[in-house]
Write a structure and sequence with these properties.
By secondary structure, the chain is mainly alpha-helical. The chain has 13 helices and four strands. Strand 3 and strand 4 form a beta hairpin. About 30% of the residues are buried.
């Protein structure tokens, strides 16, 4: 394929033209996908990286009621018959408004969980000094390497608390900066890490509740870990939020993808980006996504039992998606949100159902986002098929 600027033949694997210096990552004057920022091929309906429906870009708008994709200039929606407002008076979609409520609720829960970590820090550090904890790997069973305790264990907890704090702060910053750059377009929240993290958490929680009810109905034993010490529980779950993301997302997903890129001579993205995530999805990466999710699920069989594999495998897929699209900060945030949902009880010392109630309401509201993710999955599947046909 020739360079669009100087018409000289491109060199496979090179991002910039050796003759005129043009950016070759932009094929044939195409426009970038508004979701992932990577360039799409001309004539394709769905983005090959994130599955976003590109038919709504440029010459199309979406109906606020049924989200049917319509050409600009239409007066009425061909999907539901509703009169279409002008560009200046387009109102916020109900589904986007509910997503905003879910995002606010999840941020509130994260704030409580984070505050609990810092308020209980002296208590946890005092107890950790007399405890020991194993450093392990997943093989796929949990295999202990060595134990740490005392000052090392205390230092590890503080370091992981800081990592979680930075991850949440960076996610909020990325979300706010994306919203600001869109000139306060409320629909742009769909393109932010907080949107995906909050909505996917809600859908995951609904699935888990239904799954547990089915298991109980079938008489399946729901084995679980019982923590007899609050400080050890707080450390273990904080440690899991960071360390398991390091093992399963960075080591089992980002690292092998980085090796493939180096071996194939791809240098369009710096190598460290594959370790931190946010590099964008390509079709061949699905092998490593499934591998990391399977290993994550298998790692929970040791202490939880076989019933735990399906929800943890699904969790591994969702965190892999967040890792690839946004970065490890997003997957750490989701992991911390899930594991630290007992923060209210730890903070007050008494059973507290406030966080559970907020998460339940947020999860029910998150069901409104199901069509959004169905369309994304459909676009992803269509691109997988079309890519295979072209290959």
């Amino acid at each position: 394929m020739p360079c669009d600027e100087c018409n000289r033949q491109r060199v496979l694997g090179h991002r910039f033209c050796a003759i005129c210096g043009s950016d070759l990552s932009k094929p044939n004057d195409s426009e970038p996908c508004p979701y992932c920022g990577l360039y799409k091929e001309n004539g394709e309906r769905f983005c090959g990286v994130c599955g976003y429906d590109l038919s709504s870009i440029g010459t199309h708008i979406g109906c606020a009621e049924c989200e049917e994709s319509l050409r600009k200039g239409y007066g009425f929606c061909r999907g539901c018959g509703r009169k279409l407002p002008g560009k200046e008076s387009r109102r916020l979609r109900p589904t986007t408004a509910m997503a905003g409520i879910v995002m606010f609720a999840i941020l509130s829960v994260l704030a409580v969980e984070l505050v609990t970590g810092y308020v209980k820090l002296p208590f946890v550090l005092d107890r950790l000094y007399d405890l020991s904890y194993p450093i392990y790997i997943i093989t796929p069973a949990i295999t202990d390497l060595f134990d740490i305790g005392g000052i090392l264990l205390q230092t590890l907890f503080v370091a992981e608390l800081i990592i979680v704090t930075v991850s949440i702060g960076y996610m909020v910053y990325r979300t706010y900066s994306s919203f600001g750059s869109s000139k306060k377009d409320y629909e742009s929240i769909r393109d932010t890490p907080l949107f995906d993290m909050a909505l996917l958490n809600g859908l995951l929680l609904v699935f888990q509740v239904a799954y547990v009810m089915i298991c109980m109905r079938l008489g399946i034993s729901l084995d679980s870990i019982e923590f007899d010490d609050v400080a050890k529980s707080m450390f273990s779950l904080m440690h899991a939020s960071v360390y398991e993301e390091f093992l399963c997302r960075i080591c089992m997903l980002g690292l092998p993808i980085a090796f493939v890129m180096i071996l194939t001579g791809r240098n369009d993205v710096p190598a460290y980006r594959y370790l931190l995530g946010g590099f964008g999805f390509e079709r061949w990466m699905i092998v490593f996504v499934i591998f990391s999710a399977v290993m994550f699920g298998a790692g929970h069989l040791t202490n939880w039992g076989t019933w735990k594999f399906i929800p943890t495998f699904l969790f591994g897929l969702l965190t892999a998606y967040l890792f690839i699209r946004y970065g490890v900060y997003a997957s750490i945030t989701l992991h911390f949100l899930t594991d630290y949902n007992s923060a209210g009880e730890w903070l007050t010392g008494d059973p507290n159902l406030t966080i559970a109630l907020i998460l339940l309401i947020a999860s029910l509201l998150a069901l409104s986002s199901v069509p959004h993710y169905v369309r994304k999955l459909k676009g992803f599947a269509c691109n997988m098929v079309s890519s295979q046909k072209r290959g």
